[in-house]
User: Fold these one by one.
Assistant:
Number 1:
Amino acid sequence: MAEPVAKAFYRRLNLRRGASLAWASLPLSFLACAFFLPLANIFLLGVRADGQWTTAHLRAVLSDPYVRHLFSFTALQAFLSTLLSFVLGFPLGWFLTCYRFPGKGLIRAFTLAPFVLPPITVALGFFLFFGHTGYLNNALRSAFGLREPPLRLLYSLWAIVLAHAFYNAPVFARFIHAAWNAIDPALEEAPSVLGVPRLRAFFTVTLPLLLPAIFSAAALVFVLCFLSFAIPLSLGGARYATVEVGIYLYAQVYLDFSRAAALGMAQVFVTLGLAYFYVRAGGLWGGRQERLRPRSTQPFLSRPAHVLWIPWLLLSALLFIGPIGSVIADSFSRPLAGKPPGLGWYRAIFSREQSPFIGTSPLGSILVSLEVAGLSTLLALFLGLGGSGALRVLRSRVLEALLMAPIAVSSVVLGLALLLAFRRPPFAYLSDKFALVLAHGLMFYPFVVRIVRPIWEGLTPSWVEAARTLGAGRLRAFLTVEVPLLSQALLVAGAFCLALSLGEMTAAAMLSQGELVTLPLSIYRFLSARRFGAASAMATLLIVITVAAVAVWEWLGERTLRAYGQT
Amino acid sequence: MARLEVENLHKRFGPVVAVNGVSFAVEGGEILVLLGPSGCGKTTILRCISGLERPDEGEIRLDGHSLVHLPPEKRDVGLVFQNYALFPHLTVEGNVAYGLRHGRHRTSRKERKKKVAELLALVGLSGYAQRKPHELSEGQKQRVALARALAVEPKVLLLDEPLSALDAALRRELRRELRRILKDRGTTAVYVTHDQEEALVLGDRVGIMREGGLEQVDRPEELYLRPKTPFVAEFLGQANVWPARLLRMEEGKAWVVLAGEVLKAEAFDVPKGEEALFFFRPEWVEIGSGPFVVEVQEAEFLGHHWEVRGVVRGLPVVLYVSELPHGPLSFQIVRGLLLNPQKAVTAEE
């Protein structure tokens, strides 16, 4: 018989308190050196001048009309992006919830893609698809015999908002689909029995029940759009710069670090406030309802009225498939030296020859990206495993907040912190490649914790106990029982980190000096130089890797849970 | 064959006292069963012996050597878990071989294979070596768990309700088999259960537990025939416990007044003063004639006999009769035991 009180103790690893603290201090001390100190340093930089405490930088920054414009524009575009994401995402969530059709699992899986799809590939896709000579404009021109491109979308607020919606509508869809699926169908049937028309029932029952999910998604999407970097940088240009772009410009272009630091500081406060709201908003509507039976779905097109969905589906397909399809199509079709390329652009990006457009050889860029991604994935896995282990043993909210802190800091600010830290010893002896590895490790290990921790905590404690009564020491039990049981979760987390690191551009742009030109940076530079073919080939490479990572996630993720989660 | 001693064991979880001063010894090759209702601290005792829990106070010795400061992997104490805790990522073979591969006494691959085959044959699972745990039935999982624990040849084997997840028929079959295996190998074992029948069949001796304490440790028939406390009397089998007045002691027997009648009773724990409890089993009576007449309230037919519940002179009684009488049911008590009311706590608590 399991005594209930003893149960709490089962969860502990049978480590003494001292050993637990030692375990927890490993990831924490690493964070202290690589994250909290550099971050504190930029805060200091923002409030000190010539050895004196000062608010001058902050005041200067906050009273600067350009900075004010940056903040208000960032908020405006984030708001509009959130709104458009909702408008596009809600029907998709509805569609996924209420209908069944072949390939539904695939579509549901790819609502995850935006989390890992590199922004620069989306930006490139928008150029190729919505650009003045892009696929869409060309098609419209030839269809209606126009001389001028009918859609003038690029270099405007709307390009940014549309690209953000491309990213975040699936986030809304995912949240809404999950929440809608969890509603007890009886609650939605009750109004019709009571004689309430369907539309009215939707607004009085379904929508109120979905509101928590909608608000959570909206808060998350707003933060993501507020901190977006690659899309405004490449689609907006200097006129439509966001705060993130502003910090980057101060630090990397004008080399005004105090200003960059002060602006970064201001931004940290704003994002912390938003993050707080997000957490609170999640807690406000905590209640979950019991669902007695699963929701029934209709086969799509089983009724004539379903035809009304078709125009919307086509429009969505145009928005979601168009840009990505354009990138892939462009990499195979854009003429190279006046001839049809075949695999020519791919040969070109695997060349060792120095390219003047990106400042290094394309192959070198790919290799350095792989190196950074591999190392930072290892780092993220180690930190994630250490962090999960520490939280498993200590279960302290303070520790959790400290360990998850890197997720609350924007990539540009983290990049700035590490850029400044790496200008001084002891970090200065390491190359900027390691700065980027460190940045990516810090940025992505919270995801590892998110994936690994619940599975680790779900493992039955008696497995480790059994190993120990059979004569295995604590470490050996960890290596022979817990690690194999976590291996699938680690594989999923690793694939996820690898894809994120390969596609990450913000920290890379902040830390890049000279040789360190990663894949997304190369794409950005090719794009800026209007060398679309090479950019498309590289972006296609990234898209393939991303799709593979999502596939691993979907395939292994569910299996992991099914195999060990409930045992 | 190893001798296990537990002395004055205490374990608290926050405000809850799980184990409160428990002492017992298990001789080499003996099977001791700890029997008690759920939540009485049985499992905690096993976890302290195996080293998974650290006692607040007390001593645990194996062949005279203290175990208290050793980690679980260095104790030579095996544990069969209630939920078996088979490693889901390993095959049956991998599970059974785990201790030989990663434990203290590592052996070569060849020896391991031989040993695993031997153990699987012992538990009747030859041919299942390559199965994964989720492909086994509950009974098969139980056998694998036993084989895994035996593989490292622990000096003491602890078993935590290993049969509780099985259905009744399988449980009966497996407990016979379990006793045979443990006896054949001469394993010293501590077995925890809340199933009385299991305890009586399996144990060389049985310890009855109540609220973190050990009430009585004895051979099963002693416990049944001569319980030392009202709790033990009522916990094992059916019992009638009536208040009585002690008149005097005579040659180790007690004369008591019971519901107005004067009777003689066995007495081992003589209470101070007059107040006493008189205990008799339903089968310790003669039906048909006698001073006690039962007002029958309910009768259940159990095949071999009827179980009758009723009231005698205001006192509740349970009796077994071979057929229901047409007239009044009267009986006399042929055997009884005097119990000390100072230790009176009923099993219902």
Number 2:
Amino acid sequence: MRTSVIPFGPQHPVLPEPLQLKLTVEDEVITEAVPALGYVHRGLEALAQNRDFHQMVQVTERVCGICSVLHAICYCQGLEDIMGITVPPRARYLRVIWGELLRLHSHLLWMGLFADSFGFESLFMQLWKIRERVLDIQEATTGNRVISGTIRVGGVSRDMDARQVHWIADQLTWVAHQVRQIEPVLREDFTIRRRTEGKGVLTSAQARELGAVGPVLRASGIAQDIRQTGYAAYGELDFEPVTATAGDCHARCMVRLGEIDQSIDLIHQALDRLPGGDIRSEVRGRPQGETLMRVEQPRGEVVYYIRADGGKTLSRVRIRTPTFANIPVLVKLLPGIFLSDVPVVVLSIDPCVSCLER
Amino acid sequence: MNGNTTTVEVRNLLGEATRLKIDGYRLVTLSGVNTGPDQVEILYHFDKDLTLVHLRLAASREAPVPSISPIYPAAFLAENEIQDLFHIRFHGLVIDYQGTLFLPREMESTPFCRYDRSETPRPVSPDPQSAKSAGGA
């Protein structure tokens, strides 16, 4: 049997960002996969040493365009924990609304790319059409389509009026209706099932062993979601983690599909219960101490370790993104599958190289 | 910091990691922090049922640190990253990028430390004692 090494990426049609996998193949079957990183590493963590701790909010939002709000929320929650700042209830609910809008558009974006990976172009375009409506809501409420720029240490910088609250609820009803129309295709379509079922199977034991996070973890039957810790206003809202048991590419897609419904429901709950009052607490003094803060992003758990020595800059900001946690999973999933299934399995973890190479 | 923190030394790091593995803890990640010209603090973060615990290790750039990747395979990426950015060497890594995970080999400084890389870092072989402890996991 002949062994070859095939470079998958860094430029590949299914990868919007540069990531290389060195695939060892015997005939058409993968026997080993080694990731090669570092094509776009930006050293953003080091910027913390020469940026004011308020300015770092802008930097953290730019770690990843898709998860921008949640990076900023995690960083700000870390500083608020160190400095003992109580965030006003209205700001906590607004953070939930923007965070869930972000999850919604991220999952729709991923599903479109996933459909594209097995050549389902019309589904790709349908899903991105729905995503545009979510981006319209973000633009109307924050001023930007993707990077909102509304999260601040101590709260948020923009508010919503009653008219916007009703308008968002109407728009989300349309989004939910559109997703329900597409759902049977994602769930039952013969071609999609043939391309995704039984591919890249991760058992619950392997998921724990390899430190999987997010939908990849939950698709293997483990109901862990960092939102269960109750950060922001999640402790006052009703939800259960969406799980599946098969652990394959189809199960990961189904978990994300379920999370779209869940996000819409959470936004409706937050809009209905949106309290009045201030949107930002006063920030006094300089941070001193250390903390580890976690937030559930669309791709899974993001971790910020922050250490401050009482100066206006921070001595360390360490960012562990969900894709960084899921790369060891990918290394485990690829051996044993056909080369033709590699794009589908790689996309099933929703890799974000921008996050990976902070 | 949220979660209990235990200070460990190089000699009992693998034993503590093994104990946490047996107790069902998941490795969240590792964090490196510069604490002196040749000193780096490495924090190992673990989670069980959404509760965090941390191990704190004072490491030196002069002496390699045993890798916990034979116990927690997910550690290999974070350890390689610390190797790149802080010029700390780990021995026993399941995949060792030799300081080139994120950085090109010709780099003479890293974001968190400056050093002369005129001499290519030597591959480190696992310490027989540590490898034996890790194998016992």
